[in-house]
Amino acid sequence: MGVMDVHQSRRGFVKAAMAASIVGGYHLATVARASEAEGPTNLDDIEWTGEYDVIVAGAGLAGLTAAATVAYEGDGATCLLVEKGEGMNGNTPYSFGFQMTAKHPEGLINYIKALVKGATPDDVVEAFVEGMKESLDWTIALGANEGDIQDVDGFAVPGKVGEYPELPGSDSVSCFRLSGDAGGPKHVFLFMQEYVTAHSDVIDYRTSCPMEALVQDATGRVVGIKANGEYFKAKSGVIVCTGGFERDPEMLYNFTGVSEVNAKAGMGNTGDGIRACMKAGADLWHMSIGAMYWLECRNLENTSFVKPNWNFSNKRWGITVGMNGRRFYMDDDGASVTNAKLSDDEVVSFANADGDLTRSVGYRHAATQFGGEWVTLPMPSKAWFIFDADNLANAIDPEISADPVADGWALSADTIEELAEKIGVPADELTHTVDVWNGFCDGGEDVAFYRPAATLTKVATAPYYAMLCKPTILNTDGGPVRDAKARVLDPAGDPIPGLYSAGEMGSVWGGMYNGTGNLAECSVFGRIAARSAMASE
Ligand SMILES: Cc1cc2nc3c(=O)[nH]c(=O)nc-3n(C[C@H](O)[C@H](O)[C@H](O)COP(=O)(O)OP(=O)(O)OC[C@H]3O[C@@H](n4cnc5c(N)ncnc54)[C@H](O)[C@@H]3O)c2cc1C
Q: What does DSSP assign to residue 265?
């Protein structure tokens, strides 16, 4: 039996197993495929609430773009858009809104190929860049005000190149952003939401309506969804855009090995669409990749971040130790460009500082230089940020708290030994760590982890302080494999008919990631998926 035969017989088996079946409800709260929500097992027994040309699940930028594409290009085609939350439930509304564009497509293709290190096929990368060429014009064509658009050559900061300047094509990155708060949602999210709402003649946009299952016919074709207890039929296809698994502790632990993770946003992103696609036979990719992890300061009760968005710079004012009282990584974490802002006058990108892949330190969207390569590192579930009295106002903005100890943000003690006891780490280890660190500061070099010289801040003046740090994440990138037409593929590499995806659920970003690339793929693959579905490709 040849390889092809193996594939064919396996597919035959899968199809037989799915014959006359519905991929019934899965349990939303766990990874287990519970059968409690199973519906009818025969398509003929289903009472369809409605029928649409295209059904889209998830209303972040990917889902909104897919729905808008149906309205804008579909010549009267209809779309059901179901969203689990009331609207602002995913990552898009809280993002900074920067979208990669392709002003220099040849260089950009080379750059992204180098970033993904073969984890994404070339034709998918090429389709991505091709799609980026139209993103800005397409957004304007939908009605965005050109005067509101920030058009940037570089990555988020004008004049800067991509996050990996040592890679070919890194000077080809460009991006744009609609006006609004850096922290959203008054940028592309609100614009697209307004567009979708304004096209209610063809888009049925239902919030608080979670997709619970995909419905397949006897051939395995996805023909609809179950959402909020009702069944909806799709004539041309279903596009799953339900985001990642930032809020699913089991998936985070299983796929990335990290526990007790705090996500910055993505409240509704519990991996629902990933499990639904798995149940429909999808293969997975990029599951361990994402804008993760770093150790960000929380209040002592671990209920709140010191700053809701990235807390860019406070970690440079001290050191971070694990529960063994030792430093264990380059502990001035954050993100490359933002981490680089030392003051209003002085902007240095540490991660990009010397352009040498093997020697740069820092964080590039939370990828960490590790053994001379940039990888998504796990982080321990708990650590402590240690600093001294001289740096209290730097470590925590007085506007957030003038008395961090009284306000529950920090513990303090007059000696390092006493502080060690309060935070439950070995006193001898913490004392040694602080002594060694202060020696590095005196010598002008962090011989252990090569933290940039500008960040060598001693821990030497009592009282001493400790803030709780927990592993933090912006977004995951893993999910069902998609091809250049945004079709979801099975493990044999064949498209599952009628099933498409867009956005960070099964992102094309494998390997290393460049900021602005997630929203770009929402926009690009949202359009591609809608076009493919409408053409029944
Ligand atoms: C603070 C922050 C800043 C960022 N800044 C940028 C940036 O400037 N540029 C960039 O490129 N990227 C940025 N990112 C990453 C980017 O925001 C996300 O990757 C992107 O928004 C993902 O969009 P999406 O449409 O795939 O998913 P999301 O926007 O997360 O939307 C998914 C939606 O699906 C819904 N959903 C989940 N399950 C179901 C279900 N069962 N049924 C129906 N709906 C469901 C969720 O409620 C959610 O609304 C940032 C992320 C964060 C957290």
A: S
Looking at the predicted structure, is the pLDDT value of residue 17 above 70? Answer: no
CATH of the domain at 344: 3.90.700.10
Does the residue 67 lie in any domain?
yes
- Mutation to probe ligand 1, out of 193, 242, 305 (largest number of atoms < 8 A from CB): 242
Are 388 and 441 contained in the same domain?
yes
Per-residue 3-state assignment (H helix, E strand, C coil) for 111-140: HHHHHHCCCCCHHHHHHHHHHHHHHHHHHH
Contact 357, 372 (CB under 8 A): yes
241 lines ligand 1 (CB under 6 A): yes
20-24 LR contacts (CB < 8 Å, sep 24+): 20/218, 21/216, 21/218, 22/46, 22/213, 22/215, 22/216, 22/226, 23/213, 23/214, 23/215, 23/216, 23/276, 23/279, 23/280, 24/213, 24/226
Torsion angles phi and psi, residue 470, rounded to 5: -130, 150
Question: Distance, CA 242 to ligand 1 centroid (Å)?
Answer: 8
- Give me ligand 1 centre to Cα 359, in Å: 33
Distance 517 CA to ligand 1 centre (A): 12
Q: What is the CATH number of the domain that holds 243?
A: 3.50.50.60
* 504 Cβ inside 6 Å of ligand 1: yes
pLDDT bucket at 283, cuts 50 / 70 / 90:
very high
Model pLDDT, residue 30: 27
pLDDT of 167: 86
Same structural domain, 334 and 448: yes
Match 């990996």 to its residue by tokens.
164
Rounded Cα–Cα distance for residues 27 and 33 (Å): 6
pTM: 0.90
How far is Cα 105 from Cα 111, in angstroms, rounded to an integer? 10
Nearest CA to ligand 1 atom 1: 95
**Is 93's C-beta closer than 6 angstroms to any atom of ligand 1?**
no
Over residues 210-250, the pLDDT tens digits come to 999 999 999 999 999 999 999 999 999 999 999 999 999 99
In a domain, 410, yes or no: yes
Q: How far is the CA of 516 from the centre of ligand 1 (A)?
A: 13
Question: Ligand 1 center to residue 60 CA distance, Å?
Answer: 5
Residue range of the domain that includes 204: 3-83+200-256+264-288+477-507+519-534
Is any atom of ligand 1 closer than 6 Å to the C-beta of 91?
yes
Phi-psi region of 281 (alpha: psi -120 to 50; beta: other; left: phi over 0): left
